Each structure stands twice: as structure tokens, then as C-alpha cells.
TrEMBL record:
Region of interest: Disordered: 1-24
Family: Belongs to the 3-beta-HSD family.
Any one of the GO BP annotations: steroid biosynthetic process
Family matches, as InterPro entries: 3Beta_OHSteriod_DH/Estase, Lipid_A_modif_metabolic_enz, NAD(P)-bd_dom_sf
One Pfam family of this chain: 3Beta_HSD
SUPFAM superfamilies: NAD(P)-binding Rossmann-fold domains
Gene Ontology molecular-function annotations: oxidoreductase activity, acting on the CH-OH group of donors, NAD or NADP as acceptor
Record keywords: Oxidoreductase
The protein's name: Short-chain dehydrogenase/reductase family 42E member 2
Domain 3-beta hydroxysteroid dehydrogenase/isomerase: 41-305
Keyword tRNA processing: no
Amino acid sequence: MFRQREDILQRKSGEKVTHRGEPSEWRIPRQMRSLGPKAMITGGLGYCGSQLSRALLQEGIGVVLLDRRELQSELPKGAVFFQADVRDYEKVFQASEGIDTIFHLASFGLSGGEQLKKIKEIDSINVGGTKVVIDVCKSRNISKLIYGSSVTVVFGGDPVEDAVETLPYFPLEKQPDNYSKSKSIAEQMILTANGAPLQGGETLRTCALRPPGIYGPGEDKIIPRFIKTIQSYLLYFTFDTTGTWMNWVHICNLTQAYLLARRALTAERNFIASGQAYFIHDGDKINFFEWTSVLYEKLGHPKPRLILPGVVLKIVVTLTEYLYWLLNPIFNFTPFLTRREVGHLLVTYTFRIDKARKQLGFHPKKYSLAEVAGDYLRRKSMREDKGSPSP
């Protein structure tokens, strides 16, 4: 059965998945078997997965972190690591022994150089991996599945203001990038699976959280790239984005939402989140360049006074992407921004979180971007003291 499913996914993704994880006889550690609820987080070594695992452990929930990367640091006490690719049905099946909830956070192609990878890899992880997770839930009798989605499933570049969850999916054929298209397909797969019968006789309950950009201490994909660009003195100017607004979410607020979503898929909450999608953010609208202006002060750099039109930003970033394709085979660098990210900066896209407030009991707290810069500088200083290169 395992081999047949694996062959199907390999044909879908067009590539062979190899693994260096646990052997086929792997079983959940004995110390976890005595615990009550147990959750598995795919993409568990990522930023969101790491933060969520700590929060789950604090609530007395056992955690299995599944990730294809090798473990580089010590695990939180009570967590278990299983190295595997989310596209490998057999490995995911093994890792999910005794699990009652899966947080499916594994994804690829969100930002920087990842966005510019071939569609095959993005699709096989985001779509193929999601199919595996759903199949494992059905065969393992896992009744709760929470998906880490994105606001881009409904936003494709056209202005969106104060939208609610009834906004239709952005047409797949018009999605401007592979990541957003694959996330939309995956979310629809997750929500369609809601109500599916499980082998043990229970019912699969699913929901999806749609965050915008994520920030917070330790985040290493988006804000740190902006900080490095400031420190490299490459931003003597800013761009005219007057009147454009967006939402962001602090990692602590997003983690709170995941915990609430899990509870909202239980009988105690009348399965209120079953089959639902939720926008999740800090509750504020921000202009990106105004919001990030605090970073200049924190980093000891003067704020740029020269304001250029947005079309210049598009041209610069387009040239940078071409340079990436040209130089990437011999020189590895991460673009400051991609065309997808620029498209998000130059148009308003905001969403309401009333549904999450009402149904999940979500109440975001206020956080400052200055703390992110402070954390980045502390980490950078620690690496330099140890003689390690900056990421």
C-alpha cells in the first residue's frame, strides 16, 4: 500500500523523493505514549512550527516535529523530531503514530530565491505533500487537521480592502506566482476533505488559517532581508506607496490562532471551525515603508529622503530577478525583493478578522517591529562573537 501511494505522488511531482530519516520500524517514543493529546507539525523546524511546538508543549500536548531538514539545535523538552519529506506517505504515516491533530505548515516557495524555483518543486511539496497529509489523517484516524494557508489564495494583485472570508478564491489561471497557486489548491483540498470518514469511525475535521506576512523575533525570511539591505547602504531612497495598506501578523498572535483553531475543532466547541477558513493578523492596517521606518532608527541609519515612484521599484526588482537567474549557478544571493513581493507593496490588500474573533476567540496583542530589529542585532552579535557568518 505504501509503495503504491508513493509511486502515485512521484508521478504527480515528476521527481523521486529520497530520505535519510528514521527506519521503517520507528515508533513513537515510549515517554510520549503516556501523554494525553499529541500533535504533529509538518515543517516543524520552520519558524512557525518551532514557535507553535513550544506553545503546544506548554499546554501539555505532546509534539512530533516532521521536517526534511536535519536537526541543528536542541529540541524543546517533550518534543520529538522525525526527519522526513512531507511527500513521502510511508514516512509521514510512521511519524503520525498516536497523533490526534496535524498542523500542516510545510510549504515551499514563499519568499526570496525560493519563489524563483521551478514550479515542479513548489507544486510537489505544497500540493503533493498536502495530499499525503490528508491520506494519512484518514488512515491513521487523525480527526483534526489545521492548515497554514495564506491570504494570497484570494489575493492575486488586484486591490482588496477589508475583505471577509466569503471573498472567492482568486482564479488559479490568473495567479501571478507558483506559490500562491499551489497554496490555493492545497487549501481547497484541505477544506474539501472536511467531513471525510476515518478508518476508525470518526470524522475528519479541517480548517485553514490565512496569515499575511509574518514577523517576530527569530524570523529569517522577510524582515531580515530588509534589515540587511539597510545595513548595506542600498536604501538611500524609498518608494511612493502612499495610500497602500496591508496587514501583518506577529508570530505570537499567529501561534495563538493555531491553538484556538485546534480547540475549535473539538466537540467541546461544537466543531465550530470545521470546514472553515480564517484571516489572521494583528488587527492593524499598515503602510510597509512607514511601518519599517522604525528599523532605520533602531539600526542607526538615517531615514531615506529621496522618494521614487513605484514603477522604478518594479524595474529594479525585475532586473534583480534576471541577475538571480543569470548568476545563481555560480554566485548564491537572495534578491532583496521579488516581483511578487513588489506587487504586494504597491497595492492595498487588507482583510477583516471578525470571524476569527467571534468563532475562535482570537484577540491579537500589540507588538513593535523595533523588537525584531533588536533581536536581529543581538543574534548577529552572538554569531560574530562565535566567529560564525551571518545568515
